[in-house]
Amino acid sequence: MRLHRKCALIATVFLTFIIASQAISQVRLKATSSGLPESVVTYSHKLTAEGSKVISLTMDFSGREGRTVRVRTERTYAKDGSPVRVFQETISQRPAFRVSVTVTFDAKGAHAVVDERGKRTVKDIPLVNTAPRKCTNEFWFLRDKPKVGQREKYYHFDATKLEWRISELTYMGPTKVKVAGVQVAGHLVRSPEGEAVLDDKGLPIRLDYGVVTMVRVG
After folding, report:
1. d(CA 187, CA 174)
2. Which of 51, 61, 147, 213 could be cross-linked to 79 through a Cys-Cys bond (beta carbons 3.0 to 4.6 Å apart)?
């Protein structure tokens, strides 16, 4: 798999776990993964006056001989957790490469516009309207306080692979994790593929997903 695609997949993994806080918030994390250079992650989100949530994520990878990859992702959810829009842009240097994906949603499914090196393609990715797609966990610790053991199962759109996939998250309860030698209190959220520890505002402290590990810095 090409480096820029691996980087974009890591960004998608990160956004599967992260949920909202009550105001504009931003954190930085260090990401490590087998086969990829260490990266810096910047994550922020904000709530609009209408109650929707906008998430912004930037991941910067630096490789050998000056090679860099930046993945920038923005997701918007309606106040009921329904996906509204996804924008993902991947830019690399040495070699120079750019691809962007813009996705909108309606009752029929997802509609993606891909721009790769100036070549534009359009793709429809249907999903039956009875399939659950509301990411209500996006508002845990914001509007709804989850109970220990509460589980959410829904279809999440992968903007890198351009496909719907089942996501399942369970709130396991309060926990502690060591960051820079200090025990930090948080909330453990688990999926079949990995787990994340979030603070009281839903911001990430640590994430472990397969070979990917992200830890908050600063």
Report:
1. 4
2. 51
Measured CA to CA in angstroms, residue 146 lies from 6, 155, 163, 169, 170 at distances of 32, 19, 28, 11, 9
Using one digit for the tens of pLDDT, what is the confidence trace for 194-209?
999 998 888 889 999 8
Which residue has 């009550």 as its token pair? 22
What's the 3-state SS for the chain? CCHHHHHHHHHHHHHHHCCCCCCCEEEEEEEEECCEEEEEEEEEEEECCCCCEEEEEEEEEECHHHCEEEEEEEEEECCCCCEEEEEEEEEEECCCEEEEEEEEEECCEEEEEEEECCEEEEEEEECCCCCCCCCHHHHECCCECCCCCCEEEEEEEECCCCEEEEEEEEEEEEEEEEECCEEEEEEEEEECCEEEEECCCCCEEEEEECCEEEEEEC
Give the Cα separation of 57 and 119 in Å (integer). Answer: 25
The pLDDT of residue 12 is 53
Q: CA 137 to CA 97: how far, in whole Å?
A: 34
Q: Which residues in the chain land under pLDDT 70?
A: 1-24, 64-66, 218
**Torsional sign, CA 24, 69, 218, 197:** positive
Beta carbons within 8 Å of 190's beta carbon, 6+ residues apart: 169, 170, 172, 196
| Cα angle 82-22-47, degrees, rounded to a multiple of 5 | 45
